[in-house]
Design brief:
The longest helix is centred in the N-terminal third of the chain and has 34 residues. With 389 residues, the protein is an alpha+beta fold. Helix content is 25%, strand content 37%. It is built from 4 helices and 22 strands. The chain folds into 4 domains: 107 residues, Beta Barrel (conserved putative lor/sdh protein from methanococcus maripaludis s2 fold); 93 residues, Efflux pump adaptor protein, beta barrel domain (Elongation Factor Tu (Ef-tu), domain 3, Beta Barrel); 61 residues, OB fold (Dihydrolipoamide Acetyltransferase, E2P) (Beta Barrel); 76 residues, Helix Hairpins (Orthogonal Bundle), CATH 1.10.287. The protein is rod-shaped.
C-alpha cells in the first residue's frame, strides 16, 4: 500500500488573527457607512417637559336664577286697569309707573273727603267761639257750670271731628296714589299678568321684577366636594346659550339634600364680553368651574402625546437624533398643555408634534430656527417626509 500526502498549506495563528481583524474592520466600516447614509424618517420640532402651575378646578352643573324676584301687586281693591306701560323684558327704574287704574271714583271720593274736612273745620270754629264766650262768663255767674261744660265739650268734639275728617281725606289720597303701580326697585320685568280692562282685587299679582337685573348661578355640588369651596371662590360659568359669565360664591346652602347628597352653592354672576353676551336668562342650564388655586406639575404640549392601543406615549429624542417611545400617564388638560402624571422626567427633550408618524428607534431631523420652540406647530416638511414612508 502506497501512502500519499496532499500539499495543504499551514496557516499560522498570527495570520488567522489578522484575517479576523480585517473582516471585523470591514463590517464596522460597512456599519458606519450605512449609518452615514441613513435618511431621517421625519423632520420634527422638539420641546421639553416643563414644570408649570396647573390650575385646580372643580366642575359643577346648575341653573341660572334671579338673584331676587319681586312680586308687584295691586294695593287698591276693585279698580279697573286703565293702562299698562311696560312689558316683559323691559328695564325699569325704581319708582317708575308700570300701570294705572281708572281713578275717577277715587278722585270723587277724595273731593268728598276734602269737603267733609272743610265742614268739620267750620263747625269746630263755631264751637271754639262759643267755648271762648263761655269762659268769659264763667267768673260772672251769668251762665251755669253745666252750660259752660257743654260749650267746652262741644269745642273738643268739633276738633276731634276735624281730625277724623282729615284722616279720611288722607286715606282717600293714599288710595288715589295707589291707582298707579310703581316699580319698587331697579330691574327687569320678568312676568306680566296685568291686562287692560281687568278689575282686580287688592293683593292681585300684576308683575314680577328681577331686582337689579342680577342673576345667580345655583351650582349643585356633592357633599364630599363641598368643603373645597368657600365664600368668595371665583367661578367661570357657561350658559346653555353659550354666554360666558364670571362671579364669586356669595353663600353656601346650610343643608344638604338627604336624597341625593347635593348642596346648592349660590354664585353672583356677571356677563363677560363675547358673541353671546347678554343671552343668559333665568332658568337656563349652566355648567361652570370653581377655581381652587394652582399646583406645580409637569406638562407637555397636547400634540406631543400619541395615543396607541389605549395608552399614551411621547417620543424622546436621543443625542444621536433617534427617538425612543416612552409610555406616560396623562392627567388634565390646561389650554394647549397636557399634564404628565408619571413616566417622564422634567426637561426631557421630546418630539413636539408628528409623533403619530414615528416608530421606536426612527432617525429624525431636528428643525432649526424659531420653529424649534417648545410649543411649535408641525414643521411644513413633516407631511412630505411621512408620505415617503
Amino acid at each position: 500500500m502506497i501512502a500519499t500526502t496532499s500539499a495543504v498549506p499551514r496557516v499560522g495563528a498570527a495570520a488567522l488573527l489578522a484575517l479576523l481583524l480585517a473582516a471585523c474592520g470591514d463590517k464596522e466600516a460597512d456599519a458606519k457607512k450605512a449609518a452615514a447614509t441613513a435618511k431621517p424618517s421625519l423632520t420634527v420640532t422638539t420641546t421639553t417637559a416643563t414644570q408649570s402651575m396647573l390650575p385646580v378646578t372643580l366642575s359643577a352643573n346648575g341653573n341660572l336664577a334671579a338673584w331676587q324676584e319681586a312680586s308687584i301687586g295691586a294695593e287698591a281693591n276693585g279698580l279697573r286697569i286703565a293702562e299698562v306701560l311696560v312689558n316683559v323684558g323691559d328695564r325699569v327704574r325704581s319708582g317708575q309707573v308700570l300701570a294705572r287704574f281708572a281713578s275717577d271714583t277715587l278722585r270723587a271720593e277724595a273731593a268728598q273727603a276734602q269737603a267733609s274736612v272743610a265742614e268739620a273745620e267750620a263747625t269746630a270754629a263755631d264751637a271754639a267761639n262759643n267755648a271762648a264766650r263761655a269762659r268769659t262768663l264763667q267768673q260772672t255767674g251769668a251762665m251755669s257750670a253745666s252750660q259752660i261744660n257743654q260749650y267746652l265739650t262741644a269745642e273738643k268734639t268739633a276738633q276731634a271731628r276735624v281730625e277724623a275728617a282729615k284722616a279720611v281725606l288722607q286715606t282717600q289720597r293714599v288710595r288715589l296714589d295707589q291707582s298707579a303701580v310703581h316699580a319698587p326697585d331697579d330691574g327687569v320685568i320678568s312676568a306680566r299678568m296685568a291686562t287692560v280692562g281687568a278689575v282686580v282685587g287688592a293683593g292681585t299679582e300684576l308683575f314680577r321684577l328681577i331686582r337689579k337685573g342680577r342673576l345667580e348661578w345655583r351650582a349643585e355640588v356633592t357633599s364630599t366636594e363641598l368643603g373645597r369651596i368657600t365664600v368668595g371662590t371665583h367661578a367661570l360659568v357657561t350658559a346653555a346659550s353659550g354666554a360666558r359669565l364670571e362671579g364669586r360664591v356669595r353663600t353656601i346652602a346650610p343643608t344638604v339634600d338627604p336624597q341625593n347628597r347635593i348642596a346648592l352653592v349660590y354664585v353672583d354672576v356677571t356677563s363677560l364680553p363675547g358673541p353671546a353676551s347678554g343671552s343668559a336668562r333665568a332658568g337656563m342650564f349652566a355648567r361652570g368651574e370653581f377655581e381652587l388655586g394652582a399646583v406645580p406639575t409637569l406638562t407637555v404640549p397636547q400634540a406631543a402625546v400619541v395615543v396607541r392601543e389605549g395608552f399614551s406615549y411621547v417620543y424622546r429624542v436621543n443625542p444621536d437624533n433617534r427617538v425612543t417611545q416612552v409610555k406616560v400617564q396623562v392627567g388634565r388638560i390646561a389650554g394647549d398643555r397636557l399634564q404628565i402624571v408619571s413616566g417622564l422626567a422634567a426637561d426631557t427633550r421630546i418630539v413636539a408634534s408628528g409623533g403619530g408618524f414615528l416608530n421606536d428607534g426612527d432617525l429624525v431631523r431636528i428643525a432649526a430656527g424659531p420653529a424649534a420652540a417648545p410649543v411649535a406647530a408641525p414643521a411644513p416638511a413633516a407631511a412630505p417626509a411621512s408620505a415617503k414612508r
